[in-house]
Write a structure and sequence with these properties.
The complex is a heterodimer of chains A (117) and B (111). Chain A has strands spanning 4-7, 10-13, 19-25, 32-38, 45-51, 57-58, 67-73, 76-81, 90-98, 105-108, 112-116. Chain A is mostly beta strands and 117 residues long. The chains are: A mainly beta (117), B mainly beta (111).
Chain lengths: 117, 111
């Protein structure tokens, strides 16, 4: 199946710093990527939909100025958590949608665990 | 009301048991349905799609009832390796085809 990578897999940072997370589709082109956040014992919550070459669409309650998304190419989307605070500590997961003309499928990256001290 | 609701469990069952999970969704326009499996501290992985006619993949059987907006997953002859959180996932369609996740049902298969 298709492979999606995320980097870094884990990051620990001080409060106030910015953290950049990369999501890459390794063997297919993804016109759309999704960014999710998952707090402990909760489900994945969609943060934003990232479209190549255009602005991301953010879900209600997600601050677009805090969570900057750039989808510069068909294989790369980045999420930057600006001025991170302890409440931003979470598991961030991206997914990329492969659409080959048949049923489209989302493939998930392995996730990035962010801890803000 | 949550868009996708699941019993959080936990379900603790002995090896070899049959276990069933249920899920309801609120958007009647939902177009496609899935069960994902998520292991602790890992990303979700697609277990199976769910079709209106019901479908089976080995020990796993999924059912969809559009009239009742209800999805189920049956696991037969459960194995220790089946221990995970099972996520009911719905796609409401449209241009974005976003997935909406249930909060998951935790399963532990005991030796």
């Amino acid at each position: 199946g298709a492979v999606v990578s995320q980097h870094p897999s884990r990051v620990i940072c001080k409060s106030g710093t910015s953290v950049k997370i990369e999501c890459r589709s390794l063997d297919f082109q993804a016109t759309t990527m999704f960014w999710y956040r998952q707090f402990p014992k909760q489900s994945l919550m969609l943060m934003a939909t990232s479209n190549e070459g255009s602005k991301a669409t953010y879900e209600q309650g997600v601050e677009k100025d805090k969570f900057l998304i750039n989808h510069a190419s068909l294989t790369l989307s980045t999420l930057t958590v600006t001025s991170a605070h302890p409440e931003d500590s979470s598991f961030y997961i991206c997914s990329a949608r492969e659409f080959s003309g048949g049923p489209d499928t989302q493939y998930f990256g392995p996730g990035t665990r962010l801890t803000v001290l | 009301r949550k868009e996708v609701e699941q019993d959080p469990g936990p379900f603790n069952v002995p090896e070899g048991a049959t276990v069933a999970f249920n899920c309801t969704y609120s958007n009647s326009a939902s177009q496609s349905f899935f069960w994902y499996r998520q292991d602790c501290r890992k990303e979700p992985k697609l277990l199976m799609s769910v079709y209106s006619s019901g479908n089976e993949d080995g020990r796993f059987t999924a059912q969809l009832n559009r009239a009742s907006q209800y999805i189920s997953l049956l696991i037969r002859d459960s194995k220790l390796s089946d221990s995970a959180t099972y996520l009911c996932v719905v796609n409401v369609g449209g241009s974005a085809r976003q997935l909406t996740f249930g909060s998951g049902t935790q399963l532990t298969v005991l030796p």
